[in-house]
TrEMBL record:
UniProt xrefs under Pfam families: Nitroreductase
Reactions catalysed according to its record: FMNH2 + O2 = dialurate + 5,6-dimethylbenzimidazole + D-erythrose 4-phosphate + H(+)
Quaternary structure, from the entry: Homooctamer.
Annotated protein name in UniProt: 5,6-dimethylbenzimidazole synthase
Record's keyword annotation contains Methyltransferase: no
Similarity comment: family membership: Belongs to the BluB family.
GO molecular function: 5,6-dimethylbenzimidazole synthase activity; nucleotide binding; oxidoreductase activity, acting on paired donors, with incorporation or reduction of molecular oxygen
The EC number(s) this enzyme carries: 1.13.11.79
Organism the protein comes from: Pseudosulfitobacter pseudonitzschiae
InterPro entries: BluB (IPR012825), Nitroreductase (IPR029479), Nitroreductase-like (IPR000415), Nitroreductase/BluB (IPR050627)
């Protein structure tokens, strides 16, 4: 008796398909301010979430959930929580660095028509999850993969996305009703944009720069600082 196994062909993409993948990767940007008010159609949002849901996950546990926030009053509450944390963050920098930080426009929460809070349910899959036995953080890493899938799909659809990380965890839990056992991984702002920076915004505005690839590749063993 033979057992048939469904296998997909692993042939390379066509040249145009490969170019499209790399274009999405290299032109993806963290959008902070330049969102348009145009609504994101439900069918497009569904496609983006479907892309996120097709991310790899440890033990096929799929630990993510996506809380979609559209109502202006809800986004305003989240923005106020962000503003409080952002004021605290500014005080952690000094001199011109603080001034540069304060000059960055971070209005995505209120301007983007769709916000998504991405969470990780660390109990999904049970106490012992294949692939997580010796690294308990693999479920969180899997959830980050889902966010990256969503980000690249959004870029392909002409939708900008920003990842907001300046929050007190407890504030988001209260506003969105997230239980303590659930890990908050990312708060995302999505909306159409009419233009994107040709380089990361923080590079354009002098905050940092992309490191040369050669500086982050080690051959065979660790070669950085001990």
């Amino acid at each position: 008796m033979t057992t048939s196994t469904a296998l997909a062909q692993a042939a390379p993409f066509s040249t145009d398909e490969r170019d499209a993948v790399y274009k999405a990767i290299h032109t993806r940007r963290d959008v902070r301010d330049q969102f348009l008010p145009d609504p994101v159609p439900n069918e497009v949002l569904r496609k983006l979430l479907e892309a996120a849901h097709h991310a790899p996950s440890v033990g096929l546990s799929q630990p993510w959930n996506f809380i979609v926030i559209r109502a202006q009053q809800d986004r305003d509450r989240v923005w106020r929580a962000f503003q409080a944390a952002n004021a605290e963050a500014a005080e952690m920098f000094e001199g011109t660095r603080r001034d540069t930080y304060r000059a960055l426009k971070l209005e995505g929460i209120r301007k983007a028509p769709v916000n998504i809070c991405v969470t990780c349910d660390r109990s999904r899959g049970g106490k012992v999850v294949l692939g997580r036995t010796h690294n308990p953080n693999m479920d969180v890493y899997s959830t980050v993969c889902a966010i990256q899938n969503l980000w690249l799909a959004a870029r392909a659809e002409g939708i900008g996305m920003g990842w907001v990380s300046i929050f007190h965890d407890a504030d988001l839990r209260e506003i969105l009703g997230i239980p303590e056992r659930i890990e908050i991984v990312g708060y995302l702002c999505l909306g159409y944009v009419d233009e994107l920076y040709d380089r990361p915004e923080l590079e354009v505005k002098g905050w940092s720069r992309r490191l040369p690839l050669e500086d982050v590749i080690f051959d065979g063993k660790w070669q950085g600082e001990a």
